[in-house]
Amino acid sequence: MTIEYQYEQLEESGTLENFRRARDGKDGGFQGMWFQDSDAYKWLEAASYELAKADDTNLRERVDEVIDLVAAAQEDPGYLNTYFQLVEPEMKWTNLNIMHELYCGGHLIEAAVAHYEATSEESLLDVAVDFADHVDDIFGDQIDGVPGHEEIELALVRLYRTTGEKRYLDLAQYFVDLRGHDDRLKWELEHPSEIGGRSWNDGALIPAEGGGSPLLDEDGEYVGTYAQAHTSAREQEKVEGHSVRAVYLFAGVTDLVAETGDEELFDAVERLWENMTTKRMYVTGGIGPEREHEGFTEDYDLRNEDAYAETCAAIGSIFWNQRLLELTSEAKYADLIERTMYNGFLAGISLDGTRFFYENPLESSGDHHRKGWFTCACCPPNAARMFASLGQYIYSNIDGVLTVNQYVGSTVTTTVDGTDVELTQSNSLPWSGEVTLTVDTDGPVPIRLRIPEWAADVSISVDGGNVNQNDDYVELDGEWSGETIDVHFNQDAELVRAHPEVKSDAGRVAVKRGPLVYCAEAVDNDRPIHQYALSSEAAIDEEHRDELLDGVTVLQADAEVPSLDGWDGSLYRPDEETDIESIQLSMVPYYAWDSREPGEMQVWIRVT
Amino acid sequence: MTIEYQYEQLEESGTLENFRRARDGKDGGFQGMWFQDSDAYKWLEAASYELAKADDTNLRERVDEVIDLVAAAQEDPGYLNTYFQLVEPEMKWTNLNIMHELYCGGHLIEAAVAHYEATSEESLLDVAVDFADHVDDIFGDQIDGVPGHEEIELALVRLYRTTGEKRYLDLAQYFVDLRGHDDRLKWELEHPSEIGGRSWNDGALIPAEGGGSPLLDEDGEYVGTYAQAHTSAREQEKVEGHSVRAVYLFAGVTDLVAETGDEELFDAVERLWENMTTKRMYVTGGIGPEREHEGFTEDYDLRNEDAYAETCAAIGSIFWNQRLLELTSEAKYADLIERTMYNGFLAGISLDGTRFFYENPLESSGDHHRKGWFTCACCPPNAARMFASLGQYIYSNIDGVLTVNQYVGSTVTTTVDGTDVELTQSNSLPWSGEVTLTVDTDGPVPIRLRIPEWAADVSISVDGGNVNQNDDYVELDGEWSGETIDVHFNQDAELVRAHPEVKSDAGRVAVKRGPLVYCAEAVDNDRPIHQYALSSEAAIDEEHRDELLDGVTVLQADAEVPSLDGWDGSLYRPDEETDIESIQLSMVPYYAWDSREPGEMQVWIRVT
Fold this sequence. Notes:
Largest interface: A-B, 42 and 42 residues
Distance between the termini of chain A: 45 Å
Strand content of chain A: 15-25%
Oligomer: homodimer
């Protein structure tokens, strides 16, 4: 449904019409944001993942139609960006800070790789290769500079992996190494008349005043933090600036490390991941608290009500973590992917997949709602490609071990060290922790199961193979002929505290159960949510309700609220004259909030 | 010191130069905000109060000099506003919404009355009378309309009381009755070209977009709430709009009621006072939480960190409450004056009287500081006239009873029902509740002492007279010949809760002692303030420290903070693995905050 819906949006928003006009050599008439081409590419990528899962003639024809359009719009020798082709053909590559030609090109490449992998057809790959060759010809030669919005880096590594052409890897390395050491972004800011007259603030989500742009410091001097261009990725200590850009960059850097084994760069991404996950990340996996520059601020600044926590930043974090997981096989990255998927990302999309949050606050007075589309419509097509590519996150096959990273019902047929494997997974997550795996192999194949961070107790029953267990993984060595592995992960609800430096969460707890973060909504509770305080030793009851929110497990916890007695006509009263009452607080999974009657919502609940 | 300092500011800001240019018939060259004349009038009023207390030749000469200037700048027949005289002489009285000619004129009248009462000289009174006569000639005849910013109403009643001219009272009644029923303010908004081209948003503290102006509703339709012009004062149910304007209006309305006995209007001010004090007032007495329109919002919206709570609104509230006290003799108004004086107002001024808060938040991350002057410099001269007129708030003489409303060291010599009285008051407030009064009379004079709302226990020893006591007052009937009345008000520190609907204060307490609200500042405490939670049964120690903040009583309370153990490398941990530690929280009076090293400050402290 989402793929079809979003195709309609591409037509309605003028995105496809822009390609048609460029194809026909027309002048002007561009519709939408100047980086709108990327919506078409994200849609092509998502549609390709769908085609990889199951061929669908209608969808394939529609995809081919869009690819034909994109290919026909491409200029010789490889340039492709309908905004510049239609509006400012003489200004190509002049404004790397905000004009996003390389960002759009990166999405073109990602779509092309996905399409090639799904169909073995080179129609879109040829377009991407021509584009990449054109960029390679120009950058480092006619222009030395990096894009304001990262994306091309990880795309080029993908293109290298698909084509084997090392110069794409080198080009990715060029962009990564130059960032923080180039003079281009600063020069552009200082010469607005030479970059097409479009200034930094023009149309970008950056306020015109008030120090909102971390490209500049308090004195108005260029610092580049917004675009992670304050220093080389190699030297960065903290995740900074626009959060989507940051995690896209780090995903690309991790790809480079995987190909080059660059230890210094690896140390940098580990250090940045540590900073993000231990000081700058919401309990939902969301990142980037600040609206003004859509990004990171200070350690422990995790404001709840006006949290930005952009849906696309959660998606980017998943991209980055998946690359770290593939590189290291460390379960912590899969844990964070799961946490972000079920909470920070999933909350961004309505239950029916047609409305989206751009921002994902952890507290609301009831006036924040999902919308069908946005002026800057990055989230919906990004969410579509995330959903369509979910399968890529479930299993990995590294060093001869078939690893189950995510618990998602699925069947995988693959080859591990030359041995054929068919593995079928069914489970009852996130509502209860039962996982059943059935495995068939041609010979001995070790199978590894991630033990989720939230699983306090794990029990496993296997009718074949030996069980080895550590904190992060259970490993089963054996030969399999249809045996069943039954796993139970305990997922009692638990109260979680935030670090004492987090001012917004002081004296509060979040409630988690299994991979899910819960929240309290006005619609389920009699009193305003802010009046509730949970007891630290609260008994928490669980009830699965099939009819509610497409089926959720609801939590009921012992809580206190202030008695309303004696308040009549008083605004302030001595504490000793006031009283409390016992009550139950009802909670639902955070991802499902704002699906019913609007009202107060809180993830972090006061605790007595 | 403040009077002298502010005179220098009048010169520096160009305020006096504007009058000189108008006097000399010059064109243009106006400096400052268009309502800057009012700064000169507020200064004259404050200086007159000083002259009433003690003659000072230098100050008297300076006052006469400024009065000469003001008189010379006045046009025939009575118009006076240097902005219009210098800049737009053809546009007088065209823009009542924001051009503040009547507001400035109101301050001229207040200054004139104060000067006449202090000196018996009519030099400034003549100017005020000419202005008022001019207004009376025009309004209701050539123009039907009310000013966007109230002030003229209360001023006209003052002028009536001083001169006995009933038409000033009638003119005040005209402005009060027309507000909410006039079409002028709306008409102006719809015809910007006919009101000098200056639009509502031009220079006013109203955002250009985003629904900040409560003159308009969500659909952009005129509602007038910002200027209390949504309906007649008679019909208003809640305090709304710009808070300074609101309380100035209600002060004027209360004055009218005192003169006319209008019961419907009296019911309205009582109803509005109830709404303000039981739903829309900070524990400090501050009012108006919202920055965008400097005013009131919704019941129980009492946000702390970004509280606006303008210093001038606290001053205006004191004006209003003093009029209610004089009208009714009810102690609750004197209580609120005391609370506002010591907290919401006093915090607005630095200990040395040279720097000011425009806004008075109840919580800060340490980046809010007093400044020497403001573009819109209403607070400093308003604070000066408040300080200079303090004496007017101490005693009242109503119905043959000499009432001590405020506990301020002073001597009063007066006549009560024909009997001469000399009363001397000394006390140790706010640090301890000892009050000593010595009274000499020519015959029997009942003396009434307010029992402050915060005094749980009261003990009185009198060596003359009989004691009658109710909840609000102690009354002593007697003939006095130098007898001493010793009073002790118990002022143990106490914890106060806000109404359960106040989201910002949920799970928090404020600490009060006597008339003072306390706060915790980073400079006195080891941990960030947000980490502290007081125990409901906290033992609170008191220590008076003469060397600190010009001498304050410091409070130390038992508190808890989270243990920092085990947090290394963690951002979120299970509640059951975390621990708390006992600690002391040190607090100082709120009025003295931001006088030392900047850092976190909180009035409302979490409670366990």
